[in-house]
Design goal:
CATH class of the largest domain: Alpha Beta
Order of helices and strands: EEEEHEHEEHEEHEEEHEEHEEEE
Radius of gyration: 20 Å
CATH topology of the largest domain: D-amino Acid Aminotransferase, Chain A, domain 1
Oligomer: single chain
CATH architecture of the largest domain: 2-Layer Sandwich
Number of helices: 6
Number of domains: 3
Length: about 290
């Protein structure tokens, strides 16, 4: 079966906490891993895709391709991660053959038929059964609970990333980022955002060093879904030579910041790494 553009979680700025007491939602632990889509044929993992339809086949996933599952055919949604992981490090671990886990949380197809129209509660139960009936301890299912407030407080107290709240009665919506899935981050951790390098400037508003030496810094932007184009909103990164910085225009950056203002500007933004698994259109205001 063909690759399916994954459903994404809404950031929920301003309303996410109100869902903690909404009985229509359940909650899953949030991990900062690398999104994967696992295609199973004849009881074996045939292909592992990234969220941008790239095939993942590094040495670190050789064990996953060697799995034998009870289910004959399936398309599974999940993440590659490990304890305390950050998404910027996962690609390196896969290519270097370092240990990772496959954390599953949804099923899109089963037995040659699409089950995306079915409600999330059903799809979640199927995933739990698939994980339960296979033997490899590196294949896990995300921690879930109906007491969302208790789960959020427990995860954040342990320094975890946060939770994703999902409506139990909704279908899987490929490519959608709507209120069916809403993420709530740990407020005690620096928040991570994705932005796009849109250009360079030597008139840095935050770096006197760049202004004095004539070096440049990146300008960054976010995707405007209504205009369907990038909107430059600020500057970020250390000063560098113009030719070197220009090579990175169009690439996606993973950054940390205290917050993202309405419109996409960052407060105290710091660059972590490039994200080759994201497209510019994934980098929307508040995502």
């Amino acid at each position: 079966m063909e690759f399916v553009e994954p459903q994404l979680a809404h950031r929920g700025t301003g309303f996410a906490k109100t869902l903690l007491d909404d009985p229509a939602y359940v909650a899953e632990q949030k991990w900062d891993g690398l999104r994967i889509q696992v295609h199973v044929e004849d009881h074996r993992v045939k292909t592992v895709f990234s969220r941008t339809d790239n095939v993942l086949d590094g040495d670190g996933l050789a064990w996953l391709y060697g799995l034998t599952l009870k289910v004959n055919q399936a398309v599974l949604d999940g993440e590659v991660c490990w304890p305390d992981c950050v998404s910027s490090d996962v690609s390196h671990r896969i290519s270097a053959g370092l240990p990772v886990h496959a954390l599953l949380f949804d099923v899109l197809a089963l037995g040659g038929k699409w089950v995306m129209p079915r409600e999330y509660a059903y799809r979640r139960a199927v995933v739990e059964e698939i994980v339960r009936t296979q033997a490899d301890p590196r294949v896990l299912v995300t921690l879930m609970g109906r007491n969302k407030r208790e789960l959020f407080e427990r995860i954040t107290a342990d320094g975890g990333e946060g939770i994703v709240m999902k409506r139990a009665d909704t279908p899987y919506r490929p490519g959608s980022r709507c209120r069916d899935w809403v993420k709530l981050h740990n407020p005690r951790r620096a928040k991570r955002y994705s932005v796009v390098v849109t250009g360079v400037t030597n008139k840095a508003t935050y770096s006197r060093e760049a202004f004095k030496t004539g070096e440049v810094v990146w300008t960054y932007g976010v995707w405007d879904p209504e205009e369907k184009k990038l909107r430059t909103v600020g500057q970020i990164g250390r000063p560098g030579k113009r030719d070197e910085k220009l090579r990175d225009v169009g690439k996606v950056l993973e950054v940390t910041a205290k917050l993202m203002f309405p419109g996409g500007g960052l407060r105290h933004g710091h660059v972590l790494s490039f994200r080759d698994d994201l497209k510019p259109s994934d980098c929307q205001d508040g995502q």
